[in-house]
Amino acid sequence: MPNPFDRLFSRQQWFRGLVFSAGALAISLVAIGFAKAATGADWLFRDALGINPYLALIIAPAGFALSVLLTIRVFPGAQGSGIPQVIAATDMENPAHIRAVLSVRVATGKVLLTLVGLASGASIGREGPTVQISAAIMRAIGQRLGLAPTRQLRALVLAGGAAGIAAAFNTPLAGVVFSIEELGQSFEQRTSGVVVTAVIVAGIATAALTGGGSYFGQTSARLPVGIAWVAVVACAVLGGLAGGLFSRTLLLAADGLPGYAGRFVQRRPVAFAGLCGLAIALLGLASGGTTYGTGYAQARALVAGHSTLPLPYFVLKMAATVISYASGIPGGIFAPSLSIGAGLGRSIAYLLPQAPAGAVVVLGMVAYFSGVVQAPLTAAVIVMELTDNQDMKIPLLAASFLAYGVSRLVCTRPLYGTLAQRFLRAVEGTAPAVSGVMMDEAA
Fold first, then answer.
1. CA–CA distances in Å: residue 341 to residues 42, 229, 240, 310, 383
2. CATH code, domain carrying 250
3. Residue 286 sits in which domain range?
4. What is the pLDDT of residues 208-251, one digit of tens each?
5. Do residues 250 and 324 share a domain?
6. What is the pLDDT of residues 283-322, one digit of tens each?
7. 199 and 271 together in one domain
8. CB of 383 within 8 A of CB of 245?
9. Where are the extended beta strands (E) located within 9-66?
10. Is residue 269 within 8 Å of 328, Cβ to Cβ?
11. What is each CA distance from 117 to 65, 276, 332, in whole angstroms?
12. What's this model's pTM, rounded to 2 decimal places?
């Protein structure tokens, strides 16, 4: 019988642990740098609009077309949000297929092309791409250490993805929950130690380098027990319906448009992306520029309670996010979804004067986000950590799980899991390529 102390004091184990910790630190640094670059890309676009807002009619179509062209020609595998690709990679056996999704080249392309999208006004986030980039970093480390290409590397991919969420949002607990609920179908004991270690190191490093603090600031909103709890039901039902509709729309787009439109997308993906960019510019002009970018600023203002956004903001932002994703450009949906949910909550608050507006905004955020990703525990934990509000944990959990149930009535297939399966089939050559999921690499 092997002596457990031999494993504990093994030089090889300590060396691997140090290397994994160094990988988690690298993930934190990359996530922080990516966040700063994303902010800079957004500022660059808005500086251009400061000269003339109608420049969006040129910048957005050109930027979208360039992003898709580079995705097809230079960085195949970098398209989409990043999370379905990581989920698909955990089910792959062929090292060549894994490399096509989680290589350093793909990670580099993911960063560059997401920045191009943000500099073009796309309604996308950086969190999904950060997950894919982080998983690629951990996979590269595993290869250097000569780990087996299946079980051990799967653990590293999960650890990288979880550390990416922890670093991107500065939400360590959400990173662990996300790895269990979304990235991995099971959370084996052998995997859990690597994941938790990576998340802890990435979380500590991110907090130390950024000064800590929650992403949307701190809200003291509370929901008193009583009639105000009608807001939980209202936000859960409306948020779940809207989130489910959003996911179903993305899945329909991933399956391909019918008729001539579908053939046009297949044959002319770059031109289609340019048309999507034009639509984004028109939406931005109609909304006074509020639908461009990640939506962080709008969500933060809504949570803080001093936003002047129009009531239909959440509808316009949802449309912009659907168009951005369907165009085929790289980029995630986490940040836009949180912003849409906050806007939905603010609109619901106008109809429920008996409930504190700040609390309803946060409830709308968690309900819509849960409806989109259909991962209710992850949604609740992320929103709790983002707003640094423990007083709302019970209402947030209730709204999140109820919204998940409502969303399942509208969209019976989970968004990330379904996209991951389609991506897996596309990589293995058993499914047709579609915009936003798997581009034609030979185009």
1. 21, 18, 10, 14, 11
2. 1.10.3080.10
3. 227-415
4. 666 655 566 666 777 777 788 899 999 999 999 999 999 999 99
5. yes
6. 999 999 999 999 988 988 888 887 778 888 999 999 999 9
7. no
8. no
9. none
10. yes
11. 10, 12, 11
12. 0.87
